[in-house]
Specification:
11-stranded mixed β-sheet, alpha/beta, 23 strands, 2 domains
Amino acid sequence: MNLRILLLFALLPGATLPAEVTLPKILSSHMVVQRDLPVHVWGMATPGESVSVSFRGETRSTQASPLGRWSVYLSPGAAGGPFQLAVKGTPVAGGTDATDTLTLDDVLVGDVWVASGQSNMEFEMWKAATAAQDIPHADNPNIRLLFVKKRAIEYPQDDVDSDGWAASSPETAKNFSAAAWYFARDIEHREHVPVGVIDTVWGGTPVEAWTRTAALGEDAALAPLFAAWDRKAALEPDLLLANKNWQQQIAEARAQGQPAPPPPVAGLDSWGPGMLYNGMIAPLTPFPIRGAIWYQGESNTDFARAPLYGRAFRTMIEDWRRQWSEGDFPFLFVQISNYKATPAADWPTVRDQQLKTLGLSNTAMAVTIDIGNPDNVHPTDKVDVGLRLARAARVLSYGENIEDSGPVFRQATPEGTAIRAWFDHAKGLAAKDGPVTGFEVAGKDGKFSPATATIEGTTVVVTSPAVAEPVYVRYGWTNSPQCNLFNGEGLPASPFTSMR
């Protein structure tokens, strides 16, 4: 129950607070709890009630607050299980409630990853190109899946809408995020620990919807995102009316001492700044995690939002880390792929903004410019997406000494009639299927022309007869570019521009 609702409810004549121990839905049988971090268990009970939690031979006790809230932390431990977790509530002295106990079975200790974003992260296993061969073999008791149902709401919630954790099976995996499932399969196979994935996604949504409103408001440069929201709202009066009617229904319910009705689920709600954070991320933040994987950006490619994407995205990452209070946990994200979008969309700028986000600590990016579908915004190759995210996790989170990135632009140096592009992660730099494609150069006037590119070691030398003295170079700078630069590990170079 949300704190605001709880306070209002408590003030109603004759109202009583919850009279039994309850847990949020993220705490259920079959869950994975994060290894090597304190195990957090929390919930609601009768005010003043004594609550004890037992797990792995340890018991901790606390007392429910005057609002009925309680929370305990148990000692961290290594991966393992299955274990049983028991929560026991003992009524206050003189109370009439009987002792009640909740038991969670088949609890594993391992690594928990949050998978979030829009439709390409939402893209279900059954739609993937490899579904027929992989879904029948999805049984894996060491992979646990939690699906968060869609909820957009104006204030932070204490609980998600979910049916709880389940072990991976053909039945549970088929409607789960394909990219997240392939990520989990690879991590579990290589690290030999239980892996839990929380699938909290909503297709066709912008980054600001997943970011706490207060965090967005701290940066005046992000004010245009709120203005864009107002413009969208003005164009959708029916949805505004639905929201207004809901507010009226809440007032009437409170006046009658009844629970508030659920909010309307509409496209407008899912675009509101902070709306998805409130309903689908905030309730997860008390639950310790290993890190997050993210696939989103397509809904921020309009010319008004694209230049702000980097600021908004960094704001979201930094604020999620603050809300989880675990420091700079690994945040791995997918760069949007190639797609023949309308002329009103600016995919290159969003890709570049994503590339710049690598300046944040403990971040990594999976480039997908080579595995998209120019004619479909939802490419069906989600195996490589999951594997590239997993490769990044293996380096950033698990300390493996492997290459986790394709070539990343470092700097450009003019050399008379040519310009040289320097790269990191460029060992074995090569063009795939023919000569190097996708490069352009520009002079001081900033007008780019197609160019010829030649690989020299870990650099690329670029020239064009149309530009006598190149000053700038860029690569893959269209919505759906033809580009083919890879390193020796077969990982593609990220599109980039040297013009800032």
